[in-house]
Amino acid sequence: MSNKIRKKKMHFLAVFSLLISLFLSLCSAQRNTTFQVGVILDADSLVGRIGMTSLSLALSDFYSYNLNYSTRLVLHSRDSRGLVTGAAASALNLLNDVQVDAIIGPQTSAQANFVIGLGGAAHVPIISFTATSPSLRPQTPYFVQTAINDAAQVDAVAAIVKYFRWHQVVFVYEDSDYGNGIIPYLSNAFQQVNARVSYRSVVPASASDDFILQEMYKMKTMQTRVFVVHASRPVASRIFLKAKETEMMGEGYVWIVTSGLMDLFYSLDSKVVESMQGVVGVKPLVPRSSRLVSTTIRWKKKFADDNPGITPQEGMNLYGLWAYDTLWALAMAAEKTGFKEPTSSPNTTSLNSTDMFVTGTSQTGPKLLAAMLDTKFEGLAGNFNLDNGQLEESSFQILNVDENLLKEVGIWKPLLQISSQRNTNLTGFVGEKLENIIWPGGSRNVPKGWEVPVSGKKLRVGVPVDVGFAEYVKVQRDPQTNATTITGYYIDLFDSVMAALPYSVRYEYAPFEKSDGSIAGSYDDLTHQVFNGEYDAAVGDITITGTRSQYVDFTLQIEEGGVTRTQRIEYENPNDLLFFFKPLKLDLWLTALAMLILTGVALWILEHRHNEDFRGSHHAGLIFYVPFTSLVFAYREKIVTNLARVVIVVWIFVVLILNSTYTASLSARLTAIKLLKVDTDVKTLIRNGDYVGCREGTYIIEFLKRLGFDESKIRTYKLPEDFDIALSKGSENGGITAFFARTPYMELFLTRYCNKYMKVGTPYYTEGFAFAFPKGSPLVADVSRAIIKLTDNHKIAEIKERWIKQSACSEDDLPNSSSANIGLKSFTILFSATGIVTGFCLVCYMGSFFYSNKAKVKRIWNDESKKTVWSKIGAICTFFGSPDPKYIRPDKEMTWSKFRAVCKFFYETDAKSFPRRGENAVQMVRKNAPLRRLNSM
């Protein structure tokens, strides 16, 4: 019974499973899982054949590895016949008739430029593994580049130029979407490594051999020897054949090619390979793997089967690898999408029925695009990862053509992958080095990249105008003939240097000027013009600076450097009313006057109680009279006390030194007029807000800013006469206080105005003048050697003597600033000595006076009739001023009333009553009766 039940259950399950299977089959029949994929390639081209073989092999390999996938891709191939119109027609057929869900192709960038517009309108992804132009991607989001963009290789190419320190290159590229798309990126990359593009040779895809040959000869006459070629295989092959024909594949030349040609190297004709010996190129790095080896073996067999009669290929090149990975990525995306939705028909009611470009709108395309952009896997060419619709960048091989092989000489990696910070000294090469390269001509010596052409255009040598000093550079234009004449010291020097080269160089001078004859810019602008190729060299008063050396190469300096400051000379006026006061400073004058009064007071104090000559109403005059007359040693008063004698001796010694110093200083000032003080410190000029000047257009403007001057305080001029006027005016009158210029110019300026201006302070050290040439120019080394040669045989000195005359001013004409004002500091010891001695004598005398008269002073202080302190002090002073009875009788003291009577007597009497020579006033009174009576009053 139980067995019957089990059999019924099993029968029921079988029937139920059958019903479920039938239901799923019906559902799957309603949901289409087959994706239609169009393929547009040039069937007769090598790249097209390689692509078709790779796509077919990839399709079979994918579904062999993924048997459980429910989706399938069906390929519909179309031949564009190498035409843009053929690609467009093929795309319209696939979109309208087949209603494809994606299109692989087209092959060229020009074809893709048209087809991606159709894909964008139909919402169908256009997936290209051969169109690598950087200009294609921004047009529509429905365009996917599964090949590495051409812009990814420009840094690798620029790294080669940077590694060998070449600074000029020539672009040789095809005039097509493929060729033109990379040029802006290459230009930017070379600019980053300080390499200038000196010429661009644009070769049309349909150019004749004569056209290419003419371009080769034109480039041969140029100085640059580094050529970067970006062209398709047919055009590039013809370029190298003509380059060999014109002997431009010999020693000294450098040829660098991009990845498009390197990838197809083994498919080139043997004659082309022979002409490319020594060429260096870049190619995306493909990691080696066992899967790649096994797939390549099967691919070679399939390619031979698919293309009988075609030369077998060495292996899968990059286009084959990218085609293989493209189909795998599309198949994965289809599996993620799951099933295909029907394409909506175009709305033709509002459109012209004859519009052939009208297509339907795919409902599956957006989903398939999103799925593919999200697809990541390890493909044959490396990591497959789409970044913004483009295959992510990879490392690049640096390859060298050696006989019939490509020899790897290095690997370049993007700098951001090998270091967290971008270092300007890094190139990106693994190990920062390249292996030995065999250059064109079989040479292993690294070419200089720049040569002097045997023939061709002359070197254009830029010359600044309005230098200001005609002795150095002078540009004159004849108003009648409009002929330009350029002369000067630097011009003759450059001519002599170029004549001393071991080879002949043709050159011509070209003024750096505007249409009106004025200078076209600053000296920095002139060096930039050399960098940009407007000039092949620059000659003149060009200073070597760090900024300019980034753009040009300088020769050895032809003139010493340095920046010198000049200021106006200001002399003392000998006719000044106070000129005789200037030998001594004010503080010394005041101190001498104070010491004179102190000495006079000290002498009166020490003598007035013991010496009749210091008594009477004229004692105030004696205080000034005696010390002053000692200046000329003319005083006649007798000194009685020893202390007073000590004071007068010290004072006379001070007077002797002071008198001698004053006489010597005044004599020096009258003999050589003294120069007034000038500000020798730049900080003083800055602090005072003074205006300073320099030559227009020179780097000294930036130099003054670095010193601390505000830009508003810097005034520029052209001619020496302008500086003369500005310095004469001064800052306060619209001129300048100081003039800054290169030392050679300052010396020439002072030869003209040596009596008006002078150098101030120590010159600032800077680099000198030199000739400027483009970066990497071999002329720099040769010209520098010629400068050394001319220096050794004194030729440069002879040239300079012809142009730069020696100063007409003699040493006697130069300002003499040896005399100086004598200050108090010089007499500190002398004045201190006389002050100490005088003070000591006064203290001794006052101590002796109060000690010997202490009883009298005590009685005066205790006198009750004197109520106030001041009255007591006045009484003590009166006692102190009275004569000492031991030396002077009080009745003989000359009082003020007696003095007035004597003066009246002198006024009324005749000349006989006046004292005779050697007779003092006391003797005269004693022998004259009227005076004796006046004295006895």
What does this protein look like?
- The protein is an alpha/beta fold and 937 residues long.
- Helix content is 43%, strand content 15%.
- A 7-stranded mixed sheet has the order 7-6-8-9-10-14-15, sandwiched between helices. The chain has a 5-stranded parallel sheet with strand order 2-1-3-4-5, with helices on both faces. A 5-stranded mixed sheet has the order 24-23-25-22-26, sandwiched between helices.
- α17 runs antiparallel to α19.
- The longest helix has 30 residues.
- It starts with a helix and ends with a helix.
SSE topology sketch:
Elements: H1 2-30, E1 34-41, H2 46-65, E2 72-79, H3 84-98, E3 102-104, H4 109-122, E4 126-128, E5 143-145, H5 154-163, E6 168-175, H6 177-192, E7 196-204, H7 209-220, E8 226-230, H8 233-245, E9 254-257, H9 259-263, H10 270-275, E10 280-284, H11 290-306, H12 318-337, H13 365-373, E11 376-379, E12 382-387, E13 390-391, E14 396-402, E15 405-412, H14 415-418, E16 459-464, E17 474-477, E18 484-487, H15 489-499, E19 507-512, H16 523-532, E20 537-538, E21 552-554, E22 563-568, H17 586-607, H18 619-629, H19 642-671, H20 682-688, E23 692-695, H21 700-707, E24 714-717, H22 720-729, E25 738-742, H23 743-752, E26 757-764, E27 772-774, H24 779-792, H25 795-803, H26 828-852, H27 854-862, H28 869-881, H29 896-908, H30 921-927, H31 929-936
Parallel strand pairs: 1-2, 1-3, 3-4, 4-5, 6-7, 6-8, 8-9, 9-10, 16-19, 16-20, 23-24, 23-25
Antiparallel strand pairs: 10-14, 11-12, 12-13, 14-15, 17-18, 21-27, 22-25, 22-26
Helix pairs in contact: 2-11, 2-12, 3-4, 5-6, 7-8, 12-13, 17-18, 17-19, 17-26, 19-26, 29-31, 30-31
